[in-house]
């Protein structure tokens, strides 16, 4: 998927490089806790040291084991400075208490503590890979052309995570005779690549084509036309990777809600392949939660990766749900075209229940126009319980549980 507004920089918290100590009560002993070396005082409190980037995951793990976080102290602060848990400070799944030191956010950049590869290759010195395959995804009777491309990354150090993007520099020059600028595309493969050898990256690219509003002449996108017409064996200039907003959480028991239109399926293909198709390649990530994909297209032949998605649904019915919105073939409740926001509205009550869970992540990728309809559906569901959806969504975004990449 082409991501014209993706910058590669995410807002970092002032706590980004810090380490915190959780004081936990009521943590039941289990095989998991028996294996740990946490010092336990006679009072029954457990003290767990946690880096900032793992705070939410550790809270979820503690909650699953029946624990209650009494306080949180930053190792970088004065020894007696503690933060008690409240909904206002963005810490999920715990009861309210007194807030003695607010955990505010800042736009200042801090050192990234998690190993997320970013800008390994820049426009001035891109990685030069080769096109290994270029396959049509739209079946007969569909609209437009969408290609699945795979590039060879061997011989370099370009690696990435699911949910990131890479930049492509098309061949040739622009109208001013200067080299074309990069275009960003969401990665459609897992970190292991489609060949499972950690040496490839794949994209899902739709050729942009439209009529000029004044001349009526057909206009074709520069980079999308370049990529969809790329021959196998051709060199391609690649930059990146970039992006931290759409990363998949480490918690294998998370609920992952995905809403995509068209080539917005790209990052979700990577998610689903990692969850279900590559279990033997990911011993430290064995997905056991719920993944629910809402996928909007114009026609059935435009359902990208249809056979593979439906095969996963058949093999993992308890963990993967697949809901289509086919606008030119299906009707919504009012008799109009069926768009993805209509499917969201149909399932809003269940989705509202899911997003209240502390380990539910929601991802939206595709056309920007889908956001308003999604908000309408969620607002209708949350208002039944006296909750303002706009305010609740702000909290989800603050807690990095609501992820959006639209264009």
Could you explain the architecture of this structure?
The chain is of the alpha/beta class and about 400 residues long. It is about 20% helix and about 25% strand. It is built from 9 helices and 16 strands. The chain has helices spanning about 30-35, 55-65, 220-230, 265-275, 305-315, 340-345, 350-355, 370-385, 390-400, and strands spanning about 20-25, 45-50, 70-75, 125-135, 145-150, 165-170, 185, 200-205, 210, 220, 235-240, 255-260, 290-295, 320-325, 360-365, 400-405. The strands form 4 sheets. A 6-stranded antiparallel beta sheet has the order 7-6-11-4-5-8, covered by helices on one side. Strands 14-13-12-15-16 form a 5-stranded parallel beta sheet, with helices on both faces. α7 (about 350-355) packs across α8 (about 370-385). The model is unreliable at about 5-15, about 30-45 and about 75-115 (pLDDT under 50).
Summarize the topology.
Elements lengths: L18 E7 L5 H4 L11 E6 L3 H10 L3 E7 L52 E10 L9 E7 L12 E5 L13 E4 L13 E7 L2 E3 L6 E3 L1 H7 L6 E8 L12 E7 L4 H12 L12 E8 L8 H10 L4 E7 L13 H7 L1 H8 L4 E7 L3 H14 L5 H10 L3 E5 L1
Parallel strand pairs: 12-13, 12-15, 13-14, 15-16
Antiparallel strand pairs: 1-2, 1-3, 4-5, 4-11, 5-8, 6-7, 6-11, 9-10
Helix pairs in contact: 6-8, 7-8
Task: Describe the structure concisely for a colleague.
With 407 residues, this protein is α/β, with parallel strands linked by helices.
Keywords:
alpha/beta, 25% strand, six-stranded antiparallel sheet, 407 residues, single chain
């Amino acid at each position: 998927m082409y991501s014209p507004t993706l910058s590669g920089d995410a807002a970092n918290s002032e706590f980004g490089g810090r380490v915190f100590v959780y004081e936990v009560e009521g943590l039941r002993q289990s095989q998991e806790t028996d294996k740990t070396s946490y010092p336990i005082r006679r009072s029954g409190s457990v003290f767990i040291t946690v880096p900032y980037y793992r705070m939410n995951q550790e809270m979820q793990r503690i909650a699953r084991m029946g624990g209650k976080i009494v306080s949180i102290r930053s190792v970088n602060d004065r020894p007696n400075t503690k933060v008690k848990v409240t909904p206002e400070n963005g810490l999920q799944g715990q009861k309210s208490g007194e807030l003695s030191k607010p955990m505010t956010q800042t736009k200042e950049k801090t050192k990234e503590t998690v190993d997320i590869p970013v800008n390994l290759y820049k426009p001035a010195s891109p990685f030069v890979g080769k096109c290994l395959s270029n396959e049509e995804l739209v079946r007969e009777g569909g609209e437009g052309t969408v290609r699945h491309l795979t590039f060879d990354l061997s011989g370099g150090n370009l690696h990435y995570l699911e949910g990131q993007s890479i930049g492509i520099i098309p061949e040739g020059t622009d109208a001013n005779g200067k080299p074309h600028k990069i275009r960003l595309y969401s990665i459609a493969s897992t970190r292991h690549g489609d060949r499972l050898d950690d040496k490839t990256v794949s994209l899902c690219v739709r050729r942009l084509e439209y009529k000029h509003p004044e001349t009526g002449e057909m206009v074709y996108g520069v980079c999308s036309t370049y990529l969809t017409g790329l021959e196998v064996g051709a060199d391609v200039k690649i930059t990146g990777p970039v992006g931290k907003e759409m990363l998949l959480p480490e918690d294998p028991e998370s609920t992952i809600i995905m809403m995509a239109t068209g080539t917005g399926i790209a990052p979700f293909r990577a998610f689903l392949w990692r969850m279900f198709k590559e279990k033997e390649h990911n011993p430290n990530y064995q997905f056991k939660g719920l993944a629910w994909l809402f996928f909007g297209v114009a026609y059935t032949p435009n359902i990208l990766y249809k056979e593979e998605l439906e095969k996963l649904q058949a093999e993992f019915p308890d963990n993967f749900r697949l809901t289509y919105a086919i606008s030119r073939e299906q009707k919504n409740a009012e008799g109009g075209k069926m768009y993805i926001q209509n499917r969201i509205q149909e399932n809003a009550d269940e989705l509202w229940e899911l997003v209240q869970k502390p380990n539910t992540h929601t991802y939206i990728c595709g056309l920007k126009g889908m956001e308003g309809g999604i908000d309408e559906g969620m607002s209708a569901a949350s208002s039944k319980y006296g909750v303002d959806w706009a305010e609740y969504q702000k909290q989800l975004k603050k807690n990095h549980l609501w992820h959006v990449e639209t264009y």
